[in-house]
């Protein structure tokens, strides 16, 4: 009887994709250690970069999730966290999809206002640029 792995595939059947690529390196002790170190370094750096980007407009959370996906190649806890995150995002999207159009519009406007506020704060603190004052000045409105 063939030895089976946790994914119920025969042990002698090669996997494809990134898992197969990494499996070729994992055939030796140094290879396993090297893969673990590389995955930890790259995944950790991506997660940290994403965490730094969260308060700013842009893909902060997406970068954190991408870093977790990299860490999930080697760590079970990261895989569990990715599964949990996926379930929560799907539940949120299904909940929003079931809401009345007015609620969905309110959520969209709230997200827009939040991003605009973060952008305003970021530009004001980083560069001293107040785009609200600038916009009012362009419109000829006294400030």
UniProtKB/TrEMBL annotation:
Pfam families: PGPGW. Keywords: Membrane, Transmembrane, Transmembrane helix. The chain crosses the membrane at residues 33-54, 60-80, 101-121. It comes from the Bacteria. NCBIfam families: TIGR02611 family protein (TIGR02611). This is TIGR02611 family protein.
């Amino acid at each position: 009887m063939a030895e089976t792995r946790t994914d119920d595939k025969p042990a002698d059947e090669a996997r494809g994709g990134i898992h197969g690529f990494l499996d070729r390196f994992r055939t030796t002790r140094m290879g396993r250690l090297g893969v673990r170190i590389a995955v930890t370094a790259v995944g950790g750096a991506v997660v940290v970069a994403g965490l730094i980007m969260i308060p700013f407009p842009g893909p902060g959370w997406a970068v954190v999730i991408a870093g977790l996906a990299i860490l999930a190649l080697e760590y079970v806890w990261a895989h569990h966290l990715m599964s949990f995150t996926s379930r929560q995002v799907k539940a949120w999207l299904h909940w929003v999809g079931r809401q009345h159009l007015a609620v969905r519009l309110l959520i969209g406007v709230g997200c827009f206002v939040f991003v605009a506020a973060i952008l305003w704060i970021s530009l004001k603190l980083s560069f001293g640029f107040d785009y609200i004052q600038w916009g009012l000045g362009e419109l000829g409105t006294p400030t």
